[in-house]
Each structure stands twice: as structure tokens, then as C-alpha cells.
Amino acid sequence: MTAEVLYVIGDGAGVPDNDVPEGLSNKDLVALYRRLVLLRTFDERAVALQRQGRIGTYALYWGEEGTQAGPLYACDDRDWLFPSYRQNAIGVLRGVAPSTVLAWWRGYGGRHGFWNPREHRTAPICVPIATHLPHAVGLAWAAKIRREPVASIAWFGDGATSEGDWHEAMNFASVFKVATVFFCVNNQWAISTPFSKQTATETISEKAAAYAMPGVRVDGFDPLACYAATSQALERGRNGGGPTLIEAFCYRLGAHGTADDPKLYRDESEAQRWRTLEPVNRMASYLLRLGVLDDDDLQSIGAEAKKTIAQAVHEMEAIAQPGREILFDHVYASGRPWSFDEGLAELQGTDRPPAVKPLAPQPGPSTGDAEAPAGT
Amino acid sequence: MVEALNLGLRQVMAKDDRVVVLGQDIAQTGGVFRVTAGLLDEFGGDRVIDTPLAEAGIVGSAIGMSLYGMLPVAEIQFDAFVYPGFEQIVVHAARYAWRTRGECPASIVVRIPYGGGVRAPELHSDCPEALFTHVPGLKVVSPSTPGDARNMLVAAILDPDPVIFMEPKRIYRSIRGDVSDELPFPITSSDDIYNNAIAHARTARNGDDLAVFTYGATVPLCMDAAAALSADEGVEARVVDLRSLYPLDADAITAAASACGRALVVHEAPRMAGIGAEVSSLIHERVMADLEAPVGRVTGFDVPSPQFANEDDYLPSVDRIVAGARAVLSW
Fold first, then answer.
1. Taking CB atoms and an 8 Å limit, are B88 and A337 in contact across chains?
2. Is B99 within 8 Å of A114 when comparing Cβ atoms?
3. Closest residue, chain A, to B193 (C-alpha)
4. Which of residues 74-93 of A touch B (CB under 8 A)?
5. Which residues of A are catalytic?
6. How far apart are alpha carbons B280 and B272 in whole angstroms?
7. How far apart are CA B195 and CA A333, in angstroms?
8. Which end of chain B has fewer CB atoms within 10 angstroms, the N or the C?
9. Which pLDDT score, from 0 to 100, does residue A332 have?
10. Does ipTM top 0.90?
């Protein structure tokens, strides 16, 4: 059992950089950085959209980009991703239109707010905590039954480890030696519940021992450490070695969501101290140190991401509010219960209420005081 | 009925290698009721899986398997043990089609032996079907004959939507009947399979004086009650086996109620917000003018399913059904 936190990227001063993880070229490092910036840009823009009343309540992930883009970079294209709401935009890195994710937060369903998971090997955003973990296990298990080298990776937070579904998924994965990577983003806060009230253990990674699987603890603000640990876990899983628990130790730099005000329950000066470690600038400094990129490159990568997300916002806002018939669409894949047509007929006999706008931010504590920390 | 369910599983597993069965004690021992007996030998451990004791894990991994293209059949050992898996059924199985634009429905079947009458300990005798009929996105069915059990189970497995398959354990072995090897439909997934095999109610007995709607283990009781009414009072009751609890066969229900002018609903589950409430409401909304009496109900009581010394007091009996019928007939 170890509480050692593995890292790759040093601080450019007293803490030296470790070796670039095996298999990553300079081109890969740049590609990974681009993804970090895209995720960051999406997140900041989404918070702004919520402030402007253009999308609804939003769960931000500012500072956790490395825990998403890093592990994903280790995945094979056939591997499946199981995000929680905190990784809401991860599908964008798998080809889901960013406008679709934004439309989901705008309250749109059907073909506007959802995607086909099989097309992107990315499960839908999971809202109830830890309940997607058994799905990740079942999927990799099915691949194993079919003798196909497909793994799954599921993201969840420290709070999720208190849920029964987490235990059941960890246990199943281990008993049946399934290639699932359990990627815990331990940001130390579950809304207002601190890590110390979530568990009596010192770390999340040590819980792996109860399931006879490896537990690894990495710096969650270090995208390359997240990449390296996931890469090893996937290789092990594909070779029949079973699941791995990875704890990406970091800190929730922003609010839980746009309706949350962390000042009510924590000392924000602590968040300020952690902020110096955030992954996007850290990766940028690292790439500058390595001489892989220069300031102009950083500028142009940032501008490119801004352009992509601006276009996505434009596309999202071009979508009309879905019609009433959408209520009854796709509830069943086969057949249409008779009550659906009755319901639709009832609706169509009445005037439609005015178009729904996301709720504007409300004044006062705990309603919209969340801030995304100033960006790169 | 146990053999018929077993036959259905074997037939569909032999034909379609996407089908896997998983649950507690289902492989080595063939399930506590032996529904899955022999499957391990025939299809191997990859497809017939003993799991740890964890219903959320069972249902949840079945959903994940379905996402990868399998057709999992999850067994819940006893009715009341489904509650730990309830969240997976409600928030995921029922919503996956909707959440994926219809592309990835949770194509799973959750088999649940349910109901009392087998002298079992606490929480082995619940009738939770109405908990599931209230959840949009699920199909909920219950057979009452061996032939239906086989056909409906195969159809449920092939149907792309999640099906809660309620097996009336009291008549697992008491109801016998020949089941031909021939299925009335091909073993291939199609959008119509559910509609052909399950969605329609079955007229179990003809009659024009009173329509009795029921399903599962109370079907044979209603048949006995109908025979008694015929013998004692010359009243001919039509017994309608609902088979599908969601969606309900509204046309068959209203047609039978209209034809008879009097109707009774019988089920073992508690009365409050049960299937009987829905059937009664449907009849009153659609064909009240054809009725000569309000729709009656004979059901379990709104109490916990009792310890078995008292379960015969709780379960609808032939006498209670006859009394309920008389109340509707004499209104």
C-alpha cells in the first residue's frame, strides 16, 4: 500500500520532469495538449453560456481536463468510454459534436441532445452516481466473452466510491477478470462533502486491495501521469490481467456546478493554492521547456479551440426547441404503446406554452455564484 | 412451466449466440427453481454465468453487455431481491433507448419468480409488478401457462426493449401442459415479435355474463371460480389472461368488458395503484355506458406479504373471487 503520487511533469523549478511516457512522440504530446485546450475552452464557454441564460445548470470540470484527455489518449479506438456528468464533453474527443453536448445542457433531448453510443464508443453522460460502472464492466465482459480485445474505462469521483454500485462493479470486474479501468478523479469534494467525510481510508487507491486488483495513485493535474497509468492498466486488462483502479489525486478548483457556491463550505484560499498545478498551463510550460512548442503555437492552438467551440455554440443556438412529439420518441425501440398517441393527441389539442429558456442565474448564495477560474 | 421456460432458453440460446444468462446459483445448480438446469453443460460457462450476490451488479452488467450487442437474460432469485437492482432497471434499462435516440435500447430480460403460496420465508413472496408498470420504457409481462411461458420468454429475449418477465412461482410446477418444440414465430429479432407473442391478452374461458381480468398465478384460481359460478349459479364468466401488464391490451379489455357488461379484476399484488386500478379505470373511461355495475377488484391487501402461516388469508382464493364476482353480478 502506498500513498505515493506518480507524476511525469515537474514544476520547472525544484521538481524535475520525469521521462516522457513510453510510446509518446512529440506529435502525440502536441495532440494531447490540443485536446486539453479544447476541453478547457468548452468548459469555460459552457459556464459563460449558463451565466447568460443560454444553457441550464452546468457541471464544470475546470482543472480536470488532464484526467479526461490523458486516459483517453491511452485508449484504443475500439475501447469504450463511460463518462459521468463531470466528463460531459469527453465524447467530443471521440467525434460527438460539441453542439450536441451543449444542447444536452440546454435541455434538449432526442437527436439534438443525445448521440449514438456505438458510433463513438462513448456511453451517454451518466447522471446518477456510480451507476454506470456496472455497465462498463458488462461491456468489457461481453468483449471478453467474444474474445475481442476491447476494454472499457469509467470515470467517477471520490464520492462515487461510497456507492454500492461502485463496490458491485469493482467486485464483478475482479471476479471475472474483466478489462475495465476504474478511473477515480479524487478532487476531494463531493459538492460540500470533503474527502475526510467520504471515507476513512487515506487514499482511494488502497481500496483496490479489497478486490485483489492493482491500485495506482497519480497526480490528477498531470495529463501524462494519467496517460501512463491508464496505458499500463489497459495493456494489463487486454492481456487477461483484469481491472485496475486508478486514483487521480487532484482538487476541485471550481464549483460542483453553476448552481453551487463553494464559499459556503470551504476555504477558497486552499483552492487558490492548488490552482497553480492546473493541467493546461502545466502542460504548456512543459512543452515549452521541451522545446516542442513555442508561444506562437500555444496562441494558435488556443485560437483554433475557440473557433471550434464558437462554431458549436452557433450550431447549438440554431437548433429550434424540439417539438412536442419528441416526448414519445424512442421510449421504446419496438412498438408504440397506445397511450402515446392518446397523449400526443391531448397535447395537440392545446396551445403550446412559450418557448422554454434556461433559467437565468438567480441572485443569492448557492445559486449561480460558481466561477470558472480565469483561464489560460 | 419450469420445463417450458428451460426449453425456451435452450431453443433461443442454441439459435442465437448473443444470448447469455446470468444470476445467482443459475449455472452449477440450475437456479433455485431449476429453470436454467442443464444450460451450463450445453452452452458453457461463458454464456451461463453464476454471479456474486449483487442484483445491481447483475442488472447493470447485463445493460453493459447489451450495449456491446449481447442479449442478456438476468435472473433475480426471488421477487423481493430485485429491489437492490431497481435503480439500474429504472434509471438505466428503462431509459437507454430514449437516451440514445433509439439506437441502443437495453435489450435485456429480467426474470423474476414472484408471488406467494410456496410457504417461503419473509421477502420471498412479493408481487412487485406494478412498481415496474409505472416506469416508462419497460415492458412487463407474466405468463400463466407452460406454452405461453416458453413463447413469451423467447419473444421477450428477442425483443429489443427491456422486458421484466414475472414468473408466477406458485404455478411453476402445478400447471402442466404439452409444449410443442415448434415456436409460433421464427427465432430472429424483429420489431413485431413482441406484438405477435405477448402483447395480446388471451381469452382463457368464454362467457358473456362477467369478464374476469387476471394474470399469472391467479389465472387458474379464476378458472376454478368461473367453473363454480357456472355450476352453482349458471353464470358464465369470461376469463381474460392479460399476459402483458405493460402495455395493456386495451382493446381486448374494453371489448370483453363491453360484451359482458360486468367486470372483475383479480390479482395477488396489493390493491393500491395496482394493475386492477388501471384496468378498472380503462374500462370506466372507455366503455362505462356498456356497464351494468362498477368494476370490482379482488386483490391482495395493502399490507406486507405475510409470514406464510397467514399467506392463505392474504392470497385471493376461489371463495374470495366467487364472492367478488357475486358482488359485481348483484350490484
1. no
2. yes
3. A334
4. 80
5. 252, 256, 265
6. 12
7. 13
8. C
9. 96
10. yes
pLDDT of residue A375: 39
Q: How many whole angstroms separate alpha carbon A172 and alpha carbon A155?
A: 17
Total domains in chain B come to 2
Question: Which residue of chain A has the CA closest to B62?
Answer: A138
pLDDT at A360: 59
- Which one of B92, B124, B200, B284 is the catalytic residue? B124
Could you report the per-residue pLDDT of A20-74, keeping only the tens digit for each? 999 999 999 999 999 999 999 999 999 999 999 999 999 999 999 999 999 999 9
Domain that holds residue B113: 2-197
Alpha-carbon span B149 to B139, nearest angstrom: 15
B111 and B222, same domain (yes or no): no
Length of chain A counted residue by residue: 376
Judgement on whether residues B237 and B305 belong to the same structural domain of the protein: yes
HSE-CB for A247 with a 13 A CA cutoff: 27
Are residues B35 and B183 both part of a single domain? yes
Give the pLDDT confidence of B40-69 residue by residue, as tens digits: 999 999 999 999 999 999 999 999 999 999
Instruction: Give the predicted TM-score (pTM) of the model.
Output: 0.95
Mutation for testing the B interface, residue in A175, A330, A346 having most B CBs under 10 Å = A330
Residue of A143, A168, A335 with shortest CB distance to B57: A168
Q: Cα(A9)–Cα(A11) distance, rounded to whole angstroms?
A: 7
Is the pLDDT confidence value at B317 over 80?
Answer: yes
Which one of A115, A168, A331 has the shortest CB-CB distance to B136? Answer: A331
Q: Give me the CATH number covering residue B241.
A: 3.40.50.920
Q: Which CATH number is B103's domain given?
A: 3.40.50.970
pLDDT reading at A206 higher than 80: yes
Tell me which of B141, B163, B197 is where a domain ends.
B197
| B70 in contact with A, Cβ within 8 Å | yes
Q: pLDDT tens digit string along A260-295?
A: 999 999 999 999 999 999 999 999 999 999 999 999
Give the H or E element holding residue B296: strand B296-300
Instruction: Report the chain A residue with the minimal C-alpha distance to residue B89.
Output: A131
Contact A139 B64 (CB under 8 A): yes
Q: Could you tell me if B185 and B301 lie in one domain?
A: no
Please check whether residue A238 touches B, CB under 8 A: no
Question: Which residue, A251, A168, A165, A157, is CA-closest to A198?
Answer: A157
First vs last C-alpha separation in chain B: 38
Chain B environment of A115 (Cβ under 8 Å):
100-101
Whether residue B38 has pLDDT greater than 80: yes
Q: Facing residues of A156 across strands?
A: A184
B208 touches chain A (CB under 8 A): no
